[in-house]
Amino acid sequence: MADIINGKELAKNIRQNLKGEVDKLKKNGICPKLAVIMVGDDKASKVYVKNKSKACEEIGIDYEEFLMEEDITINQLLDLIENLNNRKDIHGILLQSPIPKHLDINKAFSKIDYRKDVDGFNPINVGKLSIGEDCFVSCTPFGIVKMLEEYNIDVQGKNVVIIGRSNIVGKPLIQCMLKKNGTVTICHSKTENIKKITADADILISAIGKAKFVTQDMVKNGAVIIDVGINRNNEGKIVGDVDFENVEKKASYITPVPGGVGPMTVAMLMENVVKAAKNMEK
Ligand code: NAP
Predict the structure, then answer these.
(1) Catalytic one among 119, 227, 241, 243?
(2) What is the CATH number of domain 139-261?
(3) Does the predicted model carry a pTM greater than 0.90?
(4) SS3 per residue for the chain
């Protein structure tokens, strides 16, 4: 039976530490502030944004939300970002995805000042990550690294298999795991014989968004399983990508959903906002 990686508890400790750091910054006259832009009315995004604002409130980070109509133009969005880039009181800017299809999200991410890009999606931060320079690392991969560190799970020399190659999870995870000296393989929807690849993984990370995709027969005995997926099952319950009940019997460590990667993602966002505020203090 696997040990459960308790992301909820870890995230709580991280938030507590950050509160102390924010108090110190405030004594020096700096109040970290996060601006969140949401375009349209995506239901799931609303929940994520609410979680982020709650975390800010708990830690003492100021928070301002910009709700834009579904039909705004790319120029209107870029103007808003420009305005936030220029505001001295704002340290972090987050554009909640998804945004409507007529807007080029990469153009918007590129517009965010890389020093305020607390989600790590600006190409400057993406590039810095790939050449090993200090930068903002996208929050989900960053949270996964933290979880592995906190549970003393060594990545060096291990076969790390990532399922999913999105710009926000899979791709930045490649760099994070390489930095830890893992031997990394990435799978996607065109990968052939995925089971053969995952069965060799010491650390298996799934980020695809399909309930019960990772089954017991895909997993090696004693593997570490990180489940990034957030899905709703037939009963309306939130579940991950992993068939938890069965895979748990074979793994050494496993993250639950909810209570695993999700809370860590929010905690790392908070850490990035505090880092952005500290950087501006220098
Ligand atoms: P995404 O942009 O939709 O990417 C999904 C990836 O999965 C793609 O690379 C896709 O391959 C791959 N994929 C889809 N079906 C597959 C299959 N049958 N076999 C192998 N690969 C397959 O998704 P995302 O934004 O990365 O999110 C993935 C999941 O993580 C979602 O459930 C999302 O809600 C969740 N998520 C959770 C957090 C958190 O904090 N816990 C954060 C971010 C995302 P192709 O590239 O070939 O299409």
Answers:
(1) 119
(2) 3.40.50.720
(3) yes
(4) CCEECCHHHHHHHHHHHHHHHHHHHHHCCCCCEEEEEEECCCHHHHHHHHHHHHHHHHHCCEEEEEEECCCCCHHHHHHHHHHHHHCCCCCEEEECCCCCCCCCHHHHHHHCCCCCCCCCCCHHHHHHHHCCCCCCCCHHHHHHHHHHHHCCCCCCCCEEEEECCCCCCHHHHHHHHHHCCCEEEEECCCCCCHHHHHCCCCEEEECCCCCCCECHHHCCCCCEEEECCCEECCCCCEECCECHHHHCCCCCEECCCCCCHHHHHHHHHHHHHHHHHHHHHC
